[in-house]
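Reopening this one. Same input as before:
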Amino acid sequence: MHLLNIDTFFIIEKVVLVLVLVLVAFGVAAYATWAERKVAAIMQDRIGPLRAGPFGLLQPLADGGKLFFKEEINPDRSTKWIFMLAPAAFMVVALMACVITPWGPSFTMNIGGTIRTIDLHVADVNVGVLLVFAIVSVGLYGIMLGGWASNNKFSLLAAIRAASQAISYELALGLSLIALVMMSGTLSLKEIVEAQKGFWDGSYFTWNVFKQPLGFVIFFVCALAELNRAPFDMPESESELNTGYLLEYSSMKQGMFMFAEYINLFFTSVLLSTLYFGGYNFPFMDVVAAAVPGWVFSLICFGALMTKAVGFILFIMALRWTLPRFRFDQVLKLGWTGLIPLALVNLLITGAIIVFLN
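Same output, byte for byte:
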């Protein structure tokens, strides 16, 4: 009976954590659409969303309502079940990253007279970095299925572009992660975050961005390409492919594709913060930990991670309205002849430094 109670509490804890993280992801993705318009307006000397609620804060609800009540159109020549499955698959894969991300340090609470440890991560997987790479790769299938099942030449060309771009940049992304794993000595995201505790350790900076600056730049550029964000928005370039793989989609199926893109943007920003910017760690965190209860400290750490993620989101949005779109041949050339050689050089330098220090 005691073991049954422990298992029940463990299951309830994980289910509640997953639900909270999904709601947070939905909330951030919804208001990322509002932030995208505001960033564009600021950079173009406009006002941006203003009419729906104060400062336009209800604009995401208005957009969602519009998509929900629009007519649902399924092309006659499309492969129906794959056409409908693609946006759902894209959304599910986008939410998978919340499972392996460490959102904050563990803390203890007295629940029913028993001291229990509450973990702010759903699963502490010892091969978390490999799972990250797998999730990034699988996310492409939603776009490819949607483009192929639409039976539209523009949509199919967009799917082919997405596949070619992903192959080009996943190699460099993987090589940059290998250098980080070599330096950290672990594949666990939680252990990578714990190795970056605080900010300064007496003689060196603890965050990986100071230890792997070139690796961070390579990973960041590859992440932009995997997100299909400008200047790498080849699969949906409006001026060339008429919105690409989204061309035949309407109503909530189109909304799911667009919403999943912003969820991917959120989790990619969280991943960048986790791998290179200390995750939930922040300067003088030991002083704060000694001054507040454990659960308050965990919430502060969660807030620190979210602050870093929001900073990355705003920076990526600013890039969209700063850099022009590349040509497709330029995109592939940058991946194969630019980033992959740089990633190999970074890998060799990292290995040489590790051998020298040991």
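So the earlier flakiness isn't reproducible anymore. For the record, The chain has a mean pLDDT of 87.
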